[in-house]
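User: Run a structure prediction on this.
Assistant: Running it now.
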Amino acid sequence: MGIEVGGLLGLIWLIIVVWAIVKVAKSSASGLAKLLWIIALLVFPLVGLIAWLLFGPKG
């Protein structure tokens, strides 16, 4: 049972990170800023997501 819960949480986490990457890609930020945010989200998923939520491009 623990494996199914872990797999489900991992899938939910993956969906959240992909959603954040899509939001960054569609934002009005410059190309370099988008690239840096996407790299941060891919390399540091937890810290990158928290930083993006707090400091990332809005809109």
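The radius of gyration is 13 Å.
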